[in-house]
Amino acid sequence: MKIKHKTKKAVAKRFRRSKTGKLKFGKANRGHLLGQKSRKRKRQLRGGGIVSDADHARISMTLGK
Known about the structure:
- It is built from 3 helices and 3 strands.
- The chain is 35% helix and 12% strand.
């Protein structure tokens, strides 16, 4: 019988699955101290990102789905 892994709640709050099964995440460094960051940098942090293939298996295992 295959062992079921518990979901790591810290990981579950940071990643979501897309409809195609890829893992999406929000960019960091957009929370505070925004006055010293350039307009370009803040604009690029607005959109999220997709987890690379190298990290996909490791992160999806801790998601438990």
